[in-house]
Amino acid sequence: MDHKSRISISSASLHILAMALMLCDHLWAMLLPADEWLTCIGRAAFPIFAFMIVEGYLHTHNLRRYLLRMLVWALLAEIPFNLMYGGSIFYPYHQNVLWTFLLSLFLILLIDKIRSRFRPVPAAFLSAGLTILGFVLGYAAMVDYYGVGVLTVLTFYFFRNQNWKSRLGQFLCLYILNVEFLGGYYYEVQMLGLEIEVVQQGFALLALIPIFLYRGRHGIHNKLFQYFCYGFYPVHMLLLFILREWILR
Questions:
Q1: Closest CA to 7 of 215, 167, 165, 162
Q2: Calpha distance 61→107 (Å, rounded)
Q3: How many Cα atoms within 13 Å fall on the side-chain side of residue 243?
Q4: What is the mean pLDDT of residues 40-45?
Q5: CA atoms within 13 A on the CB side of 235
Q6: What does the alpha-carbon distance between residue 150 and residue 137 come to, in Å, rounded to a whole number?
Q7: pLDDT at site 195
Q8: Which letter does DSSP use for residue 214 in this model?
Q9: Which helix (H) or strand (E) holds 186?
């Protein structure tokens, strides 16, 4: 079976899937708290977005424009995020996920510069230091997913090759970040006479299934689709907030 005939998923399909999963999670948070399955499958949204952010960085034709676009949409998303998350226009205690991605992109840019200017050993130590700094800054800046979110993006940067070593690295890192670091709510499941604890955040690892099926194919690739993907984030949060306020009246 040749490379082209294998089952694959395009970058456009990954974006659409991630947006649908994010919508499920936010529907649970805003309107349907009894339907926990929505947030369970929604856990997979962030890793897919994190993966696509790295893909965007690696393949963009204009990095400065890519970073500027991310900054503009981070600013545009701030009020809708504040309304959805904090119930007010100004909510300084948590920042939207685009700031997580922007911080991660700057760290990747710095790591790339370090790797190009230093020998492998000092570059590795400096990169490790920047990774730790990014983890701390994620919590200090109170970006969405905090330091774990930054490390998730860096995971897909460090393990960006399409081979079993990188995929194993992605799996192990996502397991540690989501199950060991974030942890949180879990379900008790009976299986083969054993009681197993399934961590809700562990459903994020399901994101690796579509990610592993991605092999660089674009799919839909135009400005309209690009703006739709960026605009979906603030617009859907604003609409969910308005709908919730209307229902609560």
A1: 215
A2: 19
A3: 12
A4: 97
A5: 7
A6: 9
A7: 82
A8: B
A9: strand 186-191
